[in-house]
Amino acid sequence: MIDQRTAPYAALVLRVALGVMFIAHALLKYYVFTLPGTAQFFQSLGLPAAAAYLTFWAELIGGIAILAGLFSRWVSAALLPILLGAAWAHAGNGWLFTAPNGGWEYPVFLAAAALAQALLGDGRYALANIFVTRKLEGAYA
User: What are phi and psi for residue 138, nearest 5 degrees?
Assistant: First the structure.
């Protein structure tokens, strides 16, 4: 049974954590690995270099949107392929992300979190709530 009183706050906690994580990973690509370095890594996987730049911008803009509570449901769903791609990229490294070159459990967990956010919606204190003029009774927003 879902507690109607606390569910919007649960969505908020998940939304903040997921948004911060996406922003952090975008900034990691920018400041630590650099965008050219990230592009080179993507190419080593057989992916086009442009995918690295698209991934950076998707994570940064998507993370900001999720954190702010703007279309969190749709943005989380749209970012699922990036997380599944990260799981694919790390699949050969084993289960734990502490393995050399990182394992696949963390990207898969984040994919599950993004899916949960897509199912829950924005939750409390989301900017999208300002723009909603009429809410359905019992909706979590």
Answer: 85, 0
Q: Give pLDDT tens digits for 71-102.
A: 999 999 999 999 999 999 999 998 887 888 88
Predicted model pTM: 0.89
Token representation of residue 122:
């924005």
Tokens coding 62: 């998507």
Task: Using pLDDT thresholds of 50, 70 and 90, give the confidence band for residue 121.
Answer: very high
CA-to-CA separations, 80 to 8, 76, 84, 127, in angstroms, rounded: 22, 6, 6, 22
Q: CA 106, 68, 117, 61 torsion: positive or negative?
A: negative
**Burial of residue 75 (number of CB atoms within 10 Å: 0-12, 13-18, 19+):** buried
What span, in angstroms and rounded, lies between the C-alpha atoms of 128 and 141? 8
Q: How far apart are CA 41 and CA 119, in angstroms?
A: 32
- Name, in order, each residue with C-beta under 8 angstroms of 56's C-beta and a sequence gap of 6 or more: 26, 29, 30, 35, 38
